Amino acid sequence: MNQTNQKIYIIGAGISGLVAAINLEKKGYAPIILEATDRIGGRVKTDIVKGYQLDHGFQVLLESYPKAKEYLDYKKLELQSFLPGATIYKNRNSQTIGDPTRSLKMLVPTMSSSIGTLGDKVKILKLNKSLKKKSLEDIFKEEEKTTLKYLQDKGFSKSMITDFFKPFFSGIFLESSLETSSRMFEFVYKMFGTGMATLPKAGIGAIPKQLQEQLATTQIKLDTAVKEISGQTITLENGEVLESDYIIIATEASHIVPNLRGQETPWKSCVNLYFEADAPKDRKPLIGLVADENTRINNIFYHDTLETVTTGAKSLLSVTVVDDSDLSIEALSAMVSSELSTYCGIKGATFLKSYEIRKALPELNNLRNNCAPSETQLTNNIFLAGDHLLNGSLNAAMVSGERAVEGVIEKIEGLLK
Ligand SMILES: Cc1cc2nc3c(=O)[nH]c(=O)nc-3n(C[C@H](O)[C@H](O)[C@H](O)COP(=O)(O)OP(=O)(O)OC[C@H]3O[C@@H](n4cnc5c(N)ncnc54)[C@H](O)[C@@H]3O)c2cc1C
After folding, report:
1. What distances in angstroms separate CA 45 from CA 41, 79, 206, 352, one per listed residue?
2. Structural domain tally of the chain?
3. What residue numbers bound the domain in which 7 lies?
4. Whose CA is nearest to atom 15 of ligand 1?
5. Pairwise CA distance, residues 132 & 350, whole Å
6. Are residues 213 and 149 in the same domain?
7. Could you tell me if 287 and 87 are in contact, meaning their C-beta atoms sit under 8 angstroms apart?
8. pLDDT in tens, the chain (417 residues)
9. Pocket test for ligand 1, best of 251, 272, 274, 390 (most atoms within 8 A of CB)
10. Of all residues in the chain, what percent are helix, strand and coil, respectively (each to 5)?
11. What spatial distance separates the first Cα and last Cα of the chain, rounded to whole Å?
12. Which residues, 6+ apart, have CB-to-CB distance to 393 below 8 Å?
């Protein structure tokens, strides 16, 4: 058989699966992607509701991600940048802090804010400088500790941690105790410090769309859920049986590979609620963080402070609730509306839609940024991809898709056993 006639299936059309397909095509293969849902993108999707662009969960593309630079055309995505800072709501007041070295607009509010001591501000500048110089390889070689311990060891004050780091990084790590590895903290901090946080003009879902546009010979079969993989045989939920030469499982494999049952990845969850609201007084693209204890809201963002392709009649307000909530959506949205009014001074916001994301980010130890192609090999013909192999980010999902393909190619060329 001509090598490129190998029948290669990719399970999952998320970022890792799409990047795997791009790389297989580069090597002359024409893979088939089997995707359980009715759309590509996995966790990265955007709906249009009443003209508003609703991303499935508040997420940002950090333009410094090395792999995103390789796979995405930022210009065509018309990336819209957030200001490098945040508005912090506490005790019914708000203050804005940010990185004045990247946006002069941040200088006055940051220097005059009461968040953190002068010593904290100096430590922030030092951290920025040292992480700018530190390579990603070095970051992921560091001994791991919790982010909380890392910040305490760096000498940040209690108020700086509770009023800034905790709300900011809870929204990124999707957990509010800052238990996430210090490697992830350094990685994300470095990415924030060396480029802008952005969103494509058409919403986060434009990212997988652009990856899909790079595919020419790949077939994508939507609404095609895989039930089980055994050897080279793929059994679909609809009973159909497919034979393959190689399979890349670009999602958690434990639910489809019988030998992996019981080895499920634990996941962190969140709820993202959207509201229609009156336009904010101060139209700046800044993330809002609620630093008061015992509130449900972690962060808020007015999406129309960035340019979007489509807009609704009013302002679109996104609210992220991090900690697992036992409340119904009706009860949670009522509670969030009340907190918006009490803590952020946002009155009369009307609930639009919510996304409960049970499997938002993998909960991992020993976070990595890369792996050897051979480490993606599960069996003779099955290879693995997905952010859960490395760390929960778009960058890691892309790296994992690339490594899985390198594993398959090495196997085909007889370099792997
Ligand atoms: C709320 C939220 C906020 C985030 N914020 C950020 C952020 O700001 N920056 C950042 O870099 N990253 C962020 N992320 C993480 C980022 O979205 C993920 O790392 C990335 O999308 C993972 O891609 P993936 O291909 O590994 O997995 P997935 O996107 O999960 O793709 C897996 C695909 O496999 C399909 N599938 C699963 N089982 C089967 C089956 N049996 N048969 C067929 N198909 C199947 C799924 O339907 C899915 O399409 C965030 C994620 C969430 C949810």
Report:
1. 6, 16, 8, 17
2. 2
3. 3-43+205-265+365-412
4. 393
5. 42
6. no
7. yes
8. 566 789 999 999 999 999 999 999 999 999 999 999 999 999 999 999 999 999 999 999 999 999 999 999 999 999 999 999 899 999 888 988 877 666 666 666 666 677 888 899 889 889 999 999 999 999 999 999 999 999 999 999 999 999 999 999 999 999 999 999 999 999 999 999 999 999 999 999 999 999 999 999 999 999 999 999 999 999 999 999 999 999 999 999 999 999 998 889 999 999 999 999 998 888 899 999 999 988 999 999 999 999 999 999 999 999 999 976 678 999 999 999 999 999 999 999 999 999 999 999 999 988 999 999 999 999 999 999 999 999 999 999 999 999 999 999 999 998 766
9. 251
10. 35, 25, 40
11. 20
12. 65, 187, 188, 387
Residue 417 lies in a domain: no
- Determine, yes or no, domain membership for 289: yes
Q: Is residue 403 part of a domain?
A: yes
Q: Tell me 146's DSSP state.
A: B
114 and 195, same domain (yes or no):
yes
Q: Tell me which residue has tokens 């916001």.
A: 349
The binding-site residues of ligand 1, defined as CB within 6 angstroms of any ligand atom, are 11-17, 34-37, 42-44, 57, 59-60, 225-226, 250-251, 256, 270, 357, 360-361, 386-387, 392-394, 397
Distance separating alpha carbons of residues 306 and 80, to the nearest angstrom: 6
